[in-house]
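Reply to dn_fold:

You asked what the input looked like. This is it:
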Amino acid sequence: ANEVTIATKSWALLTVLEALPQGTVVKKGQSLLKLDLEKIDEKIDTLRQDLRLLDLDRSIATANLKLAEAVAPLELAAIERREKHSKEDLARYEKIHRPFSERAAAMSLKSSKDSLSYVQEELNQLKKMYEADDLTEETEEIILLRAENAVARAKFSLESAQIRNEETLKIDFPRKDTTIRETAKRDELSIQSLRKIQPAELEKKQLELKKLDEQKKKATENLSRLEADRKAMAVPSPSSGILYRGTFDRGKWSGDSALKSRLRRGGALKPHEVFMTIVESRPISVRADLSEQNLRRVKKGL
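and this is what came back:
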């Protein structure tokens, strides 16, 4: 006798659509049972799609990793240049630009004072020269008026220069100093962070690719198991003979009633359980119990 089971490894949903009736004479390889394959087929299709997506994700991750590995030295060189330039800019500002700006502010203020001094002296000289005459001519009055106006403009210009000088020294320079030093400090912190982030991002891409490889391996294994389970759910007869529903134990048959409801449409079976037995018509073996007093009567060929 050959027992019939469904040896699935991962798929446990075995729903019956139809099964051959008790006593059917079957041939080896003949289908004994038809199961509902819709859900397992859907699961297999989903896994195949997942595998295709994983292949695409892996291709993208591989390309991104290669690009990151190629760009990493360039980015590191850019970080080092940025750090060098930031330090150079701060040093140049403190050594050259800041002192020069202070000198320029002082020179501007001095120029305004000198301008006022020059026009004031010219006005004084004109007044002394014209005071020698008893009568001031009309032309001389015009010249004096122009000189007085030039002095007034020079005074106003000096006042403006003094205001600008004060703003430059007390407001503009301190603010600019703070901004430049803060920028340099931010650049320094940013560069330190980038030095740590860059290798971490590269390692992250490597781990992501490794994770995709592991996911693909697991998905491939799951698909292989499901495809094997799908084949196992075909349930061909292991031999030619007569189909019995149930099992035989030392000649004792379990009967059809226990499996009758489970082998109809919508019934459910369990993996690896014996639900049918194929009994070959020849040869036939008989097991029987005899009392001790009858044992001596048993002879070969009886």
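The chain has a mean pLDDT of 87.
Hope that clears it up.
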